[in-house]
Every structure is written in C-alpha cells, then in structure tokens.
C-alpha cells in the first residue's frame, strides 16, 4: 500500500476504514506467502478514454482493422458523447455509431426514457454487451428522482448497457470568490443515490467516473480537510475542471468499497 494511502487510513478520523485496510493488507500478505507474483499484482492494464468532441480529430484517427474490416477510432480505447452533443441526428452520434470501439453517452437530469431507447437503437442496435455505456450526471438533488425511470426503461427494453455514475459534472458551481468548484458532500451524495437506485431496482451499478489527483490541491470544497471557499486559492492548480485531492479521492474510494461490500452482503 502506498505511503499516502497509509497516511489517509492512519488518520484518526478515518478509523472506520482501518478494518478494511487491514483486510486488504492481510490478503496481500497471504498471496505473497502462497508464492503469487507480487510484482504482477502491482501492475495494471491501462486504457485511454476521452470525449469524442472534436470530430476532425476523431475522423483523422479512425482506421480500418485489416483483419476484420471494421473501423476503429484509435485516438482512444473508450470514447463517449457528451450531454450537449448526443442529438440523434447529430454528427457525434453518427460517427460513433459507425466505429467498433466501446462507447459511452452522458445523460443529464433532463434525459427522457424515449431518449435512451432511441440512443440504444442508434448506437447498439444488436444489444451487444460491452458496446454501450450510459454515464449519468444528474446532480445530487436529482439522482434519486431522475435515474430510476431511465434504468427501468432500459431494463424492460432488454438494453445491454453498463451504468456509470459521474458525480463530478452535475455538481459544479462557481464560488463567490470566482473559482469553479464542487462540493465533496454533493459528490458523495450522488454516488450514494446511484447505488440506492440500482439496489432498489435490482440492477447493477457498473462504475464511477471521478476526476482525482494525487496532489494536495484545494479545488473541491469539503472532505476531511474541510476545504472552505477561502482555502480554494491556496492550491487551485487545475486549468480545466476542479479535481478531488488525494485525501478526498481515497475517501470516495473507501465509501464506494463500503457500498459494494454492503451490496454483496445483501
């Protein structure tokens, strides 16, 4: 476990996570004692992903696979269409309907059930598992109201989509001091709402889309350090979107682990 993970878990305010951390540590030691290739456990397969926003760029990097004859956008493994560019008759949907990459679509709180069905028919007409991901960005106040009808609609229609929660982009606002920021409590609440909806419907919460950094930035309000509006200027380093710092990132990770454990036990 990295030292900054240890620092987080060792914090007295995070005592509730110590049991989980000890279990992880014991499991890793057990595997090492059994002769597992420990260096391999430290490795990870890395995949790239980004929004397919600039069509000239994406078209220029689309290639035909010589073995299958299928087109792939080689700018990234996984591409997604944004909330503002997901029009059925738009060029972004048209391009990604033609490539064979796994693709995603961002869905905001105004999304209607008919919208998701039309997107499935356009982007995944064969209902192919792994092809289409819906990334919900509802905002904490709307997640429990807006998400259930979409999930129910897709489930009834036999859609083979993966559901991912993006609790970052639906909870942004500008602070009185002029900084683009997000509130940690809102981020956590949207993740909780996402898990609650899927638990109630018996469907699968497939993942979480976060924007973290391992640095001690002060870009999102709240968290254990209780970053306030006055502290935003201390280490606000992002030139785009505000990120969770390493303490906030780990706190979210442990909360998600708790929710997964509770789901497995239910």
Write the topology of this structure.
Blueprint: H1 3-10, H2 18-33, H3 38-42, E1 49-51, H4 55-60, E2 62-64, E3 71-73, E4 78-81, H5 91-98, E5 103-107, H6 113-123, E6 132-136, H7 143-157, E7 162-165, E8 172-174, E9 180-182, H8 184-201, E10 207-208, H9 246-265
Parallel strand pairs: 1-4, 4-5, 5-6, 6-7, 7-10
Antiparallel strand pairs: 2-3, 8-9
Helix pairs in contact: 6-7, 7-8, 8-9
User: Helicity level, as a percent range?
Assistant: 40-55%
Q: Spans of 5+ residues with little confidence (pLDDT < 50)? A: none
Instruction: Give me the number of helical elements.
Output: 9
| Net shape | globular
Distance between the termini: 29 Å
CATH topology-level name of the largest domain: TIM Barrel
Give the total of beta strands.
10
Element string (H = helix, E = strand): HHHEHEEEHEHEHEEEHEH
- Strand fraction equals 5-15%
- The overall pLDDT average reads 90
As laid out across the biggest beta sheet, the strand order is 1-4-5-6-7-10
Structure class? alpha/beta
Largest sheet: 6 strands, parallel
The CATH superfamily of the largest domain is: Aldolase class I
| CATH architecture type of the largest domain | Alpha-Beta Barrel
What's the number of domains? Answer: 2
What is the name of the CATH class of the largest domain?
A: Alpha Beta
Radius of gyration, in angstroms, nearest whole number: 20 Å
């Amino acid at each position: 476990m990295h030292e900054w993970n240890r620092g987080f878990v060792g914090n007295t305010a995070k005592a509730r996570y110590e049991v989980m951390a000890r279990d992880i540590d014991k499991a890793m030691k057990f595997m090492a004692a059994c002769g597992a290739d420990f260096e391999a456990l430290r490795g990870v397969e890395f995949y790239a992903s980004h929004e397919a926003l600039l069509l000239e760029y994406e078209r220029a990097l689309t290639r035909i696979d010589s073995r299958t004859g299928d087109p792939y956008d080689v700018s990234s493994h996984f591409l997604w269409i944004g909330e503002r560019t997901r029009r059925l008759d738009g060029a972004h949907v048209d391009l990604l309907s033609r490539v064979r990459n796994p693709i995603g679509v961002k869905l905001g709180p105004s999304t209607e059930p008919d919208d998701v069905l039309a997107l499935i028919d356009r982007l995944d007409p064969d209902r192919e598992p792994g092809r289409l991901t819906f990334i919900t960005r509802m905002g904490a106040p709307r997640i429990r109201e807006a998400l259930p009808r979409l999930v129910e609609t897709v489930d009834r229609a036999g859609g083979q989509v993966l559901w991912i929660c993006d609790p970052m982009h639906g909870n942004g606002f500008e602070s009185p001091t002029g900084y683009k920021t997000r509130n940690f409590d809102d981020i956590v609440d949207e993740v909780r709402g996402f898990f609650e909806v899927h638990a109630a419907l018996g469907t699968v919460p497939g993942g979480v889309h976060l924007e973290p950094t391992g640095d001690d930035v002060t870009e999102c309000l709240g968290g254990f350090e209780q970053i306030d509006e006055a502290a935003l200027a201390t280490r606000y380093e992002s030139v785009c979107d505000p990120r969770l710092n390493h303490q906030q990132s780990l706190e979210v990770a442990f909360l998600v682990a708790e929710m997964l454990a509770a789901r497995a036990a239910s």
